[in-house]
Each structure stands twice: as C-alpha cells, then as structure tokens.
Amino acid sequence: MITKEEIIDSLKPVRDPELNISVVDLGLIYDVCFENDGKKAIVHMTLTSPACPVGPQLMAAVHTKACSVNGIEDAEVKLVWTPKWDPKTMASEEAKDQLGIF
User: Fold this and answer.
1) What is the CATH number of the domain that holds 58?
2) What stretches in the chain show pLDDT beneath 50?
C-alpha cells in the first residue's frame, strides 16, 4: 500500500521557480488522500498567493510527480486556500532560513 509519505517524498523535487525552494519545504502541500483502492492520489495544496503566476506550472509538476510513484495510476491536485499559507508556521526550518524568517 502506498503511503502519504511516499507521495510527499516524490514531491520534494518540485520547486517554486520564484523562490527556488521545494513546495514540500515551503509547506504548500497540505494533505494527500487516496481513492480507488490506493491507486489514485489526491494532493491538497496551496500557493504562496492567489495571484501566483506559476500556479498552473506548480500544480502540473505536482501531478506529474505524484503519478510517477509506483502503483499510482492517477492523481488529482486540489487547490485549497484554507488554511491560509503562512511560511512562519508551515515552512520547514531550512526554508525559513532561505526566506530570512527567524
């Protein structure tokens, strides 16, 4: 059975091109659920802002990486805005350092 952690690990190479930080480290991936006996991954994610110009590009990259996990036949990326993204509480320590948040 594929786990949430496996999907999240597959998403680590996806980087926000403006910040050059992983979407996972930024805290933009909120959740991963499964359907169809675990063959479909549903990734709940947000963007750094509603007007993010690379939003469609990031969502496509997340979809591609989630589909690349062995055993996943399909993936869906759901864009969510709640809770509002806050790098002070959602980003990894490494991402906070890169963003200058102390």
Assistant:
1) 3.30.300.130
2) none
If phi > 0 it is left, if psi is from -120 to 50 it is alpha, else beta; for residue 19 that is alpha
Sequence-ordered list of residues with C-beta below 8 angstroms from that of 6, at least 6 positions apart, any chain: 69
DSSP E strands in 37-81: the ranges are: 40-45, 74-79
pLDDT in tens, 5-15: 999 999 999 99
In a domain, 96, yes or no: no
Contact (CB, 8 A) for 87 and 99 = yes
The domain of 12 spans 4-86
